[in-house]
Write the C-alpha cells for this entry.
Amino acid sequence: SIQFIVFCVIVIPAYFVFPHRHRWGLLLLASLFFYLVFPPSFLFIIGAIILFDVFTGNLIEHSSGRLRKTFLVIGILVNIMLLLFYKYFNFINENIRNVFSLFDASYPVPYISILVPVGLSFITFQSISYKIELYRKHIPAERHPGIYALYLLFFPKVIAGPIERPQHLIPQFREKHEFDFALFKAGLMQVMFGFIKKVVIADRIALVVDPVFKNIDGHNGMELLIAAILYSFQIYCDFSGYTDIALGVAKIMGFRLTDNFNKPYFAKSISEFWRSWHITLSLWLRDYVFLPLAYALSRRWKKERYFFVKTEKWIYYSATIVTFLIIGLWHGAAWHYVLWGGLFAVYLCFSLATSRDRKAFYKRTRISKFPQLFSITKILTTFMLVTFAWIFFRADSMEDALYVLFKISSLSFSEPVHFSLNAAEMVFTLLLIVLLVIKEWFFFIIGTGNTFRWSMLMALSVLVCYFFGVFNQVQFIYFQF
C-alpha cells in the first residue's frame, strides 16, 4: 500500500540518523505503530506474551534439573493454550458438539466470536523457539524487554514471518548498522520483485481463481482444474512476494532475515519441496517436533521390526504424520487444512516405503540414462502432487474440496472454458507465469553490482507495477494465519 511505502520512507532514513544506542527504541516504536494498524487491543495480548516470556526466560536460565524443565513446559503450555483459545476454541468446541449430537446429548458451551490477533501463530512459534533454545543453553536469557519485544514484533516480519530463531535475530538489534549502498540496492531490488510478484502476478491470478472457488457449482471440471493450477502460482507469488518485501526492507537497514523460499516448484520430490517452501516453518517443526518425537520413539521402540517393517521406518512414519498434521492445523482451524497436511505426510511416507521399488523401476526403464528428461519428469510429478494438495488448502471446506475433485475427475476436454478475464487478459496472465518461471530458473537472484543496470531495472519494475498491477487491496493470503 501507499501507506506502507510512506512508512518505510520515514522509518528507514530515521533509523540511520538516530544514534546507535536509541535505534532499538525507534524500531520498536515503528513496529508498535505498524501493528496498531490492526485492532489496538491485540497489543495488550502481545504485551502479555512479551512480559511472560522475559519472566519465564529468567526462571529457565537460573534453574536446573527437573525445575528447569518444569518452567520450560509451563512456558510452552501457556503459549499453546493462548493459541488454542484464540485460533482453535470454536473449532474444538464445534467438534465436541458434533460428538455429543451423535448420542443425542445436549452441549451447553456456545459459539464465541473471537477476533484472532494478527500474526499470533508466527509470534507464538518464535516465543516457543526462544524458550527451547534457552533451555538447550544455545542462548542467554534476554533481559531487555524492549529488545525481546522487537524480536517478536519487528515490523517487516511480524505478520507473516519468516519465523526467526532468537540466536539469529536478537544479536542483530545490538549491531551497529551503517548505511550501505550495496545493501540498499540489493534490498530495494528484492522489495520491487516482491511487489511485482504480489500486485502484478498473484493479484491478477486471483481475478481468475477467486471467482471460480467462490462459485464451484457454476464452473465445470476444466475450469476448476485450470483454477487449481493457477492457484499454485498465486499462493507462491503472494507469499514469496511478502517475504521478498520483508527481507528487502530489513536488508536495507542491515538486518539479515532468513529466506523462506528457494525455487520450490523446481523441487524433484516432496521432501525437497518442503526444504524450499516456507523454509523457516519446515525447520522449526523439524527441530522442535519431528526430531524430538523421533528420538523419543527410538528410545521406547526396542524391537528391530514391528509387523515385518523396520522400526526406523515406523519412527519416520509416526513422526512425519504428527508433524504434518500440525502443519495443517497451524494453517487453519478446519479439517480441510488438516487433510492438506495429512496428504503431504502420505506423500512422504509413500516415498520412503516405495524407495527400493522405484529405484528398481528406474533401473529397468533406464530413464536415469536421460538425466534432463528424468529431472523434468520428477519436477512435473512433484508439482502435480503439490497442486492436488493445494485444492484442499484453497477450498472453503472439506466438502467443497471433494466436490472440486469430483468435477475435475469427470471433466471433458470439450467443455467450454469461461473466466472473469477475457482471452487476451488470460494469455497475458499465462505469459507472466512463463516469465516468472524463466526468471526463477535462470535469474533467481538479480545481481545489483552495476548501478546503471540496477537503476534501469528499478525504473522498469516501477513501470510494470504501475501499468500492470492490480490494486484492489487484496490482502496477503498468509495474513490469515
Summary: The chain has a mean pLDDT of 91. DSSP finds 18 helices and two strands in the chain. The radius of gyration is 24 Å.
